[in-house]
Amino acid sequence: MTESESGRPHVPVLLDAILERVAPVRGVWLDGTMGAGGYTRGLLDAGADRVIGLDRDPLAHQMAREWADERVELVKGVFSEMDEVATDLDGVVLDLGVSSMQLDRPDRGFSFMRDGPLDMRMGDEGPTAADLVNNAPEGQLADILFRYGEERAARRIARAIVRRRATARFETTLDLAETVAANLPRPKPGQSHPATRSFQAIRIAVNDEFGELARGLSAAERALKPGGWLAVVSFHSVEDRAVKRFLAARSDAGGGGSRHAPEREARAPAFVTVGKAVAPSPEEVANNPRARSARLRLARRTDAPAGEVSRRALGLPDPVEGL
User: Fold this and answer.
1) Closest CA to 149 of 219, 197, 91, 111
2) Is 95 annotated to bind ligand?
3) What is the per-residue pLDDT for 10?
4) pTM for the whole structure
5) Which of 64-73, 96-105, 301-310 has the lowest mean pLDDT?
6) Alpha-carbon torsion (94, 96, 100, 101), positive or negative
7) Which of 43, 111, 278, 282 can bridge 48 by disulfide, Cβ–Cβ 3.0-4.6 Å?
8) How far apart are the first and last CA of the chain?
9) Is 210 annotated as a binding residue?
């Protein structure tokens, strides 16, 4: 456990559940979303010989210099390219949530509760949220809000953003949050902030999170050795559904057939799934409320050739044109 910039302890979600199910931990693992290093250190403590800590965030690497030893190889990059970093891995772990150290720092621009520059990038490259909000056509903004945030008032909010930016650019998170909130009904007690869906949608677009997930799952399949473990922790139902569909597709041996469905061509499955999705225990949620929506899915690689599953087959929203 480490502390984020806010002073809150950073707690890796469902770490014990992963370690329990993949025991004995050994060989070389890749932590595709290293962040504060909770999974990396947990894997090393459990017996991994070496862990490759992969993250696009320079802050993660800056923090790792304080705790990483010779068993940790730090690599700056995205997990969708992990198979260019290493292959023949004994395990891959991915945490698809936004890390506490990003959410808790106003200067990263993820929060609609605390003011900061409108950034939202998980790394230090590419357009910021301000670039997107201030330059995207109205129709593209509406598509982003609807597809990635399931925001029913997407067109109304997009229209308001375009009207407002004609007089002054959006520069800060609270500036955008107030514009979104002004165009939605006042929330009732207990409801989430009106800007929640819009901020989620813009963050997903800025970081190409759905594209990264689709490519990353296939990259993990290429990077794992036969018998290697894939462990994915998701916090969003769309992401969990994508992981579930990927593993179902890649663990399917074909065959079957009935009077209701034709027989499918037999094939060698690339994964063997391990149990159903694992939810955090009540004790874990009590200690770490951010774990409450987490789901863990596990699978073990076979020696079948790697393949691909399309983004649409994973149930992920289509990319927004022009992004």
Assistant:
1) 197
2) yes
3) 62
4) 0.90
5) 96-105
6) positive
7) 43
8) 37
9) no
